[in-house]
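Title: Request for sanity check on tRNA (Guanine(26)-N(2))-dimethyltransferase prediction

Description:
We are preparing a figure and want to confirm that the structure record we downloaded matches what your pipeline produces today. Could someone re-run it with the sequence below and paste the raw structure tokens into this thread? We only need the token string, no images.
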Amino acid sequence: MLSLSLKPVTPFTHQTPKSPTSTKCCISERGHCFDIGDTFFRHESATGRDLGVLAAAIYKKSHNALRVLDAMCGCGIRSLRYLAEADADFVMANDANEEYGSVITGNLERAGKGYGENKRWVITHSDANRVLTECYLRRDYFDFIDIDSFGSDSSFLRSALGAVKLDGFLYLTSTDGFSSGGHRPLHSLAAYGAYVRPMPYSNEIGLRMLIGGAVREASVLGYHVVPLFSYYSYHGPVFRVMLRVRRGKHPDNRHYSFISYCSRCGNSYAISWDKLSAIGCSCNANVPGSLIVSGPLWTGPLHSAPFLTEMLNLAEQWGWTGNGTGKQLEKLLNQMMDESDPKLPFGYIKLDEVASRAKVNSPSLGTVLSILHKN
């Protein structure tokens, strides 16, 4: 189960402003013209922004309310899109760098007033943890919290869980490909509570590592999280997961366990906490170092099929699917739905490795998928 990285689904154009006195160059995304100034901005992250907007809009439709906290907003494009497309009632756009203030203000002014009794947005400049903690202390809870962080900074997980409403959404990020690849096990242990070793499906491990960290922190507070979708993109790399936060500890603890991979036979399977003393592989290999164990990690489904169906239906209504750039988003959402089957095991074996073990030529991926679907 792995969400493949796809090319950005959103066409970008650079537009010269109408004002002849302005020297700024605007960028357009989904019809919104905005300025990036000197902020950190990636065109390639458009797919992640599309997914976040779709999820936020679904929340607004089902709850008839949407208050968003964009904890690390950069230039403010996500905040702008939550206001304009997801119809957010209010957005708090925070970025620790005060020098970005004028850029963020200019972009959000395109979505309405940021002042007065009926203001729809506010801009703050503070550390994300401080903002989240202050919201919790004021009991100023948010329906949707987007944290587009860098590296494996997980220090905000607990404060975010405290600031989000029950049944609300957390949109988390990691860009630490070294830890997901098993190259910094002590670092992943400190950040997410998981000792990760090198495995063939490191992209999927990165998503499970991030969800597992959230599961651990939520359990401490008496909550549990449910993955709605998980997305990996090669640029960065970037791992993004959308989680629904609910009261009570997770009813199925078997989804938080260890993952074992046998380099001799290629088999992967979950190991529960009470079976750690009896780790072994069904191939009975006695080759030293052939069994690799990582964890604890999230071992349950990475996506929710019903929620993804709503996202796809909404994307179709908005004209975000079909030919051209929309085809990539449609393909991604359909792929996520295929992966959401709880009966599917985690991990994968590369097709070339399967052919090598069977000592045959590699068939085309399309042929293999067709046969699997048929059976």
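Thanks, this matches our download. Confidence is low (pLDDT under 50) at residues 1-23.
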